[in-house]
Amino acid sequence: MKTQLLLIAMISLSVNALTATNECDCTEIVQSADCKGGCTWSSADSSCSAKTVDCTTYTTQPTCDAVNTCAWNDTTSKCATFTACADYTVTAADQCYDKDSTCVPGTTGTDGKTPCKTGSVTCSSFSNAADCNFKSPSSNAVCWFKANTCSQIDVSKCSTITDQDVCTILCKWTSAGACAAYTCADMTTAEACDTVLTDDFSGVNICSWDSATSKCSDAADVSALTSANCFDKTAGYYYWDGSACSECSGSSSNGYILAFIGFIAMLMF
Ligand SMILES: *[C@@H]1O[C@H](CO)[C@@H](O)[C@H](O)[C@H]1NC(C)=O
């Protein structure tokens, strides 16, 4: 009986992927090498903290509007912290979408200028790819133009994505014609064998490379990771705590869904 239980425990351990759902908060990072991306290292007190966004450092409308919390003020031609959709009037109606994900164009006046207002995107209102693609009707959907129609695609999970082009941005399109999350086994090089996104983008599965067989598979633990690769090989879901690779307790924001939508800003400009 005991042996059986042990066997069951071992089997379930070996098939369970090592999933991490909390990205490190800047403040739990203790070595400067891991303090990057949205974090900044202070050598004065050897601490890592979140970078503060200074909107005034962005001097063009596209770079300004691409930053989540900033928006371009057409009156002053300056970048400042986003306030409210209705505060903005733009020369091209489409620019309202760039101010914030909650903004849509209002009615264009006789002067050709368009006041923005709070509202949500309706994919079907767009009639070409440039206007349609990557607009975001909600935090887990994007618009996509195909067969002359702008449709709303659910991007809350790889497995819900019905369009191949949208799928392959972050997930894989299977031979069965469906979208699915990558697995560690899909990674064919040691470099690519680090993490794969979970199906619902809520975290990552940690992978491990076997150099003897040149195969990537689900990691059982992170004991092989070092101060030099713990953070990077876990996509920032673990950090080097001084003596071991430790799981982050940080925020469990749906980082990658946001990335999916944020991406968009990048592709648009
Ligand atoms: C743009 O700048 C003007 C002048 O400073 C200010 O009155 C206005 O409120 C600003 N608009 C927004 C949306 O911040």
UniProtKB/TrEMBL annotation:
Signal sequence coordinates: 1-17
Superkingdom of origin: Eukaryota
Keyword field: Signal
UniProt entry tagged with the keyword Signal: yes
Protein name, UniProt field: Mini antigen
Biological classification of the source: Eukaryota, Sar, Alveolata, Ciliophora, Intramacronucleata
